[in-house]
Amino acid sequence: MTITQIFKSVSSREWRFVIFLSLAMILVTTALLIYGYLITPSGQTFTGVHFAAPNDWFVYYSYLEQARQGNFLFKDLFASESHLPVLNIFWLAVGLAAKIFSLGNIAAFNLARIILVPIFYLVAYLFLAYFFSDAGKRKIAILLLSFSSGLGLFLINRLIQYPFNFANGVFNWPMDLWVPESNTFLTLYYSPHFIAALTLILLTFFLTVLFVENKKLIYSFGAGLSALVLFAFHPFHVLTVLGVIFVYFATLMVKRKKWSWPLLSHYLILSFLSLPAIGYYLYLLKVDWVTQQRAAQNLAFTTPFWITFFSYGLLLLFAVAGIYFLVKQRKFSNKSILLIVWILVQFGLIYFPVNYQRRMTAGLHFPLVILTTIVFFAFYHWLKRQKNQFSRFLFNQRYTLLIILAILLIGSNLFQLATDFFIYTNQREFSYLDNEIIAAAKWLKAVDSGKIIFNSADNIINFIPAYAGRTVYVGHGVETPAFSQKQDEVDWFFGANRDQAVERQFLVDRNVNYIFYGPIEQGLGDYSPAAKPYLQEVYSNSQVKIYQVL
Questions:
Q1: Which residues of 112-128 are buried (b: 16+ CB within 10 A; e: fewer)?
Q2: CATH number of the domain that 472 lies in?
Q3: For residue 436, which of 36, 356, 488, 543 is within the disulfide window of CB 3.0 to 4.6 Å?
Q4: Would 264 be classed as within a structural domain?
Q5: Half-sphere exposure of 291 (CA within 13 A, CB side)
Q6: Which of 402, 423, 444 represents a domain boundary (last residue)?
Q7: Last residue of some domain: 370, 394, 423?
Q8: Do 475 and 534 share a domain, yes or no?
Q9: Residue 545: enclosing H or E segment and its boundaries?
Q10: 495 and 381 housed in the same domain
């Protein structure tokens, strides 16, 4: 089938269903943000963060802030060392839109997410229409893709507690409770760059299978350009995309028992077109020390297998059953081969010896859902044919079973919503910041962009880059080289008053130009900046004082 034929195979009634579903998803994933904004306490500002990985939001906002200030290349504002600015086409596009339409960073961030949701549904449903000709199967599959998750919720306070073990990048908490890439709902709920990445992964694979079906180079060029854009802002997925397609093509050639030049040409075009993005990041890794440190500190290891099993839960069980069903029935079509290869290769890659394993879970949810749909319908038709009493009982109770199954499949996603409701209601996890603290941070916009701000990164988070677009000495567990050492230095500095020559030399050696002295810094010890002759107060409000190092 061509993409035109697939598009025509989808009825107008189906498209209305998809439109309604995308609007429902936008409502579900946005309602809590509206709630959080509406209950903002007096004197505070809503930050829009979620329960999972709240510190990452300020990194995203720092990119948007830099674009709004006219920068096309982004510095790591959480790193005080000299380094090369980086081109990130996704955040640049969102940031420029924010600048053009005078949107705040939080508004631009979530508007981009909302716009990308229906685009994702368009690509996902067309891809599902390739696998299923029956409209009923397509609808069930898109519903599963939208809302299904794992069984991680049922481990909480039973087999594991939060946080279980967070050291050296190992966070043994079920991924369906906190890893945005692990399932589609979390992807659509969290950040627009996750949605864009997932959409481009699916588009690249979709155009690849269309090439296999039609041998038209237009699909090869489309897949290559899709991969180029994907790798340009999310290079984590190079192994996933090129690995799955490589094994898929190799399997097809083994099945046909002959070499295929068309498949080779597609792979070469795909690789060649995406090579500039791959080469760009390899270049940064080779020549830029800060990029090297960020890559080394970006420890995102996949959970142990037993926790990963719960992270995907019933979907993984159904997928295994689906693979068994396809193998037993000897249904080795191009579609079934892709599904089997996709799951086996990508599941293997999330345990591949690289430090960004969890990042490569993006896209795995899709083939799991397709195989689950196949098993659902196969079991339904098998049950319908059975004549024994137990089978008839199950068939008669099918709606009750569906309700139980739905609860098991969506439980972890409900947990996400409930947790965010909790943190907004109770002003937890940096969901709100005092207006005077933000005002002080924004005052720093008047400071030269090359200056370095010295303050504490409480709970590995620093809001100054997000609201001022200025560089801080320490700010983020991944973005700041030697984060723990630098945070210890900050704690030491604010802990007590010492010889003033020693204090000043400490700041000079680290190229610090300004000290941000707010409630967090004040709570670290007895340091008294007002009495220091090497400091000049340049800003003050009831909560924050900013000093320039003379």
A1: bbbebbeebbbbbbbbb
A2: 3.40.50
A3: 543
A4: yes
A5: 16
A6: 423
A7: 423
A8: yes
A9: strand 545-549
A10: no
- Determine, yes or no, domain membership for 98: no
Distance of alpha carbon 493 from alpha carbon 509, whole angstroms:
13
Host domain of residue 524: 432-549
The reply to whether 487 and 467 lie within a common domain is yes
* 495/538 same-domain check: yes
Return d(Cα 409, Cα 313) in angstroms, integer: 8
The residue behind tokens 């906002």 is 61
pLDDT (tens digit, 0 to 9) for every residue of the chain, 550 residues total?
Answer: 899 999 999 999 999 999 999 999 999 999 999 999 999 999 999 999 998 878 899 999 999 999 999 999 999 999 999 999 999 999 999 999 999 999 999 999 999 999 999 999 999 999 999 999 999 999 999 999 999 999 999 887 666 555 545 555 567 789 999 999 999 999 999 999 999 999 999 999 999 999 999 999 999 999 999 999 999 999 999 999 999 999 999 999 999 999 999 999 999 999 999 999 999 999 999 999 999 999 999 989 999 999 999 999 999 999 999 999 888 877 788 999 999 999 999 999 999 999 999 999 999 999 999 999 999 998 887 777 777 777 777 777 778 888 888 899 999 999 999 999 999 999 987 899 999 999 999 999 999 999 999 999 875 678 999 999 999 999 998 999 999 899 999 999 999 999 999 999 999 999 999 999 999 999 999 999 999 999 999 999 999 999 999 9
Do residues 298 and 487 make contact, with C-beta atoms less than 8 angstroms apart? no
Residue where the block lists tokens 């994933």: 29
Entry pTM: 0.95
277 and 243: one domain?
Answer: yes
Long-range contacts of 238-241 (CB under 8 A, 24+ apart): 238/274, 238/278, 239/349, 239/352, 239/354, 239/360, 240/201, 240/346, 240/349, 240/360, 240/362, 240/363, 241/201, 241/204, 241/205, 241/274
Residues 350 and 498 in one domain: no
Residue 536 pairs with which residues in a beta bridge?
548
Identify whether residues 369 and 445 lie together within a single domain.
no
Domain count, the chain: 2
In a domain, 540, yes or no: yes
